[in-house]
Amino acid sequence: MSEFRLYLNLVRKNPVYLAGLVIVSLFVVVGLIAPYILTRPGDAWGLTYNVSRRFMPPSLEHPFGTDEYGRDLFNRVLLGTRFSLVIGVGVVALSLAIGIPVGLVAGYVGGRAGTALMRVTDMFLAFPPLLLAIALAATFGRGLSNTILALSLSWWPWYSRLVYLQVSSVRNLPYVDAARVIGISEVRIMFRHVLPNSLTPVITQATLDIGSAILEASALSFLGVGVPPPTPEWGLLVSSGWQLISKAWWISFFPGLAIVVTVLGFNLLGDAVKELMDPRLRNILSMRRV
Amino acid sequence: MSSLLEVNGLTKYFPVKTGLFGRVVGYVRAVDGVSFEVAEGTVFALVGESGSGKTTTLRCILKLTEPTSGEIRVDGRDVTRLGRDVTRLKGKELKWFRRDVQAVFQNPYLSLNPRMRVKDLIAEPLKTHTEMSKEEIYRRVAEVLALVGLPEAVANQHPPSLSGGQAQRVAIARALSIEPKLLLLDEPTSALDVSVQAQILNLLVELKEKLKLTYLLVTHDLSVVRYMSDYVAVMYLGKIMEVGTSDEIFSEPGHPYTLALLSSIPEPDPRIKKLKKKIMLSGEPPSPMNPPSGCRLSNRCPYAIKECVAEEPELTKVTKTHYVRCIRHESLSSLINN
Amino acid sequence: MSEEKLLRVSDLTIHYHTVEGIIKAVRNVSLEVGAGDSLCVVGESGSGKSTLGLAISLSLPKNAVVASGSILYKGVDILKLKTPEITKYRGKEISMIFQDPATTFNPLFTVGEHLTDILRHHFNMNREEAVKRAAELLRMVRLPDQARILNSYPHELSGGMLQRAAIAAALSTNPKILIADEPTTMLDVTTQAQILDLINSLKRELNLTLILITHNLGIAGEVCSRTAVMYAGVLLEEGPTEDVILSPLHPYTTKLVKAIPTITKTQGRLSYIPGTLPDLRNPPAGCPFVDRCEFATPECSVSLPKYSYVGGVRRVACVLYGGERK
User: Fold this and answer.
1) Å between A187 CA and nearest CA of chain B
2) What is the ipTM metric for this complex?
3) What CATH number is given for B3-337 in this structure?
4) Using CB atoms, which residue from B90, B105, B107 is nearest to A183?
């Protein structure tokens, strides 16, 4: 009985989980091909200024309307998908790159050094992550890489903790003892035996966190400390339409909708994955009559 | 016949801490003065229930834990003074030790990294200790697989897809790949089914003859001990209560605890059941932090007398090979028959 | 022997739906247990013995499906009962104790609270009466210092004491049948001896009907008058324990008896059973032992042999004894 079959049964029980997979798949595909399918690349990249087309409401020609510079919003939101994908994946990847080594060393060495290292991590965890990210982003200045850096610096402690917990239990398993008895060096044991067996929870969590990363990046851009204009990042698009909401609601609405739907998709997928991982539920899902 | 392994006065105390500041309130005396010798080419068994200290003794010998005091000599060389800090990188000094002394653990699904393929698991000791080329290593892997009776196809599989018996054979193969002199076996068949147990035990006996190995067997299962061992030491609460040849221990046990262990084995054969001398211990094993005064068995032994509580007995000699830690051992057989 | 047996299992087949496929854990098993009998179900892992125990005590997990058969208790098919009816039997008429006594108890409640809860739920007792009865039960399982134990949490008790408490809890509702699934496997041998001795006495004192599930033939010899041997979901042999052990009929039983190392004499090579268990997702059509049996004939692979009755009190499912074809 394959994983996919189980997923199908899960969806039959609760059709909402299908939406998660569909949305995320759509998001990834669009994010990858967006620059190549733009109908008005100039508008999308923010290089044009069409006075005659300003503030046009949604229509067949401009499905999402136009903004204060006369740029087609559908194209901008479409390109924004690419930026969200890059930021989402970038933040998560960088957080893992920092968090995994810290958690690994703290968990493997253990004892007082390990606990001390985790206390430092805990200090970072004490800050509400978004506030810390905002403070860091404001300090670094606007920009795509600065945004990714600021978010990663506030995110890595969560992954550190996940890895630390997993490593702490794996290092007591008999095959680690066996490796010592064979005569393998501690460093090699840490990388060859303990690390590969400790990554599953954190990788799963990270993949699903892409959605949250996108949300936080949007928040930063909305507040003006993230990505600078004219980048068509969704949060930025929302903020640019904010003052004009009564006059041209579509400028904030469609990018906002994109954010909500994408994050929702990741959350639903995350819930589906967590249910699939629960061993008891997996067995019930494999029953013919669910 | 020289002794390959010598343990002298081994102790291991674990501090017990409580409170906010981790004040030490007492010690668990897991191993409290254990001495024995394992002669080359023999099988020596350490028997005991949980809390007896046999597993801790094994871990001390393997240097997975640092003993509190005592000596462990392998092949005449003192092992305890080498590499005090167990978590340090292997120094050149420990290398010969790891090559000569290997181990097989209880649960092969836990003692084999589930993400590695069988051939890499067996190759690992070879890569660590020899300068063999890749082809030479994999040739040796095939050799060792055949030695433990596994087909070559197993080499590309992962432990979770193997049966219990197969997985344990892989663990044995891994231990033997670098041709050790001493093999420590920690409950090697306790996690396996009865029919598979027999296969593995037969294999271990065969390998010992073929490769001229020495075994230190740690287990709670007396029938396995009877099948395989030349010498037996019975442990209780961190001390050796009785030690002797297999025949001496099973046919003429001197210590009440040994007899209680022997009596407690459920005997399937009803004819033998009637003939067995039986004694049963009362109560529960005491906390290893507070062993009873005098003899450690005194609070549970049906034959305990005043003198048993007063002073802890020494190991007294019965024969050249047989020692018992009990002041009443001479009268034990008459005590039982009454 | 025409009196109505207390428990009659007929042609029981149980499947587990798992991620790896449908596991046919118990296949066409039939047996009978009379009041006051003690039956041991012996088998290695994968034999289906635990599943059988769970079925009889109405504790099968959600992914288990009863594909066929019935379990008649006092004439009622308890497998067909719906939820309100089941509570009359589960834990009340038929009780079960497990390998790990810790799973019986909620770690957040003391042993006393657990016992008094059961007592007050099943009988109309007030708190005082329940506490008194709980202490009595602990005395019955030979636990000293009952007051202290009633106030202890499960993790504060040793394995042996906790298992005794579990037995007390199981017997608190005055069940007719007690099912014990590997009750001593997790205990030290000396404690095991004490627990088996206790079970034997309770069996006599309370005239309990006992079904003991174990992989250890020695325990069968110590406790039960009858023994049934299971392999890969099929019941291969059944009879008085002494007979099954001293003169086993089925080739599997014979090999099992010979594979056990004993302490009474030194042996040459242990006889062992070559091969491995069949895959329970696709068990062979005929006798499951066919791949490992030295007496196998082509007939054996065709269908599960029917039982032959030997000497009136024993039965065995093997063509060697002229079993009739299904």
Assistant:
1) 8
2) 0.87
3) 3.40.50.300
4) B90
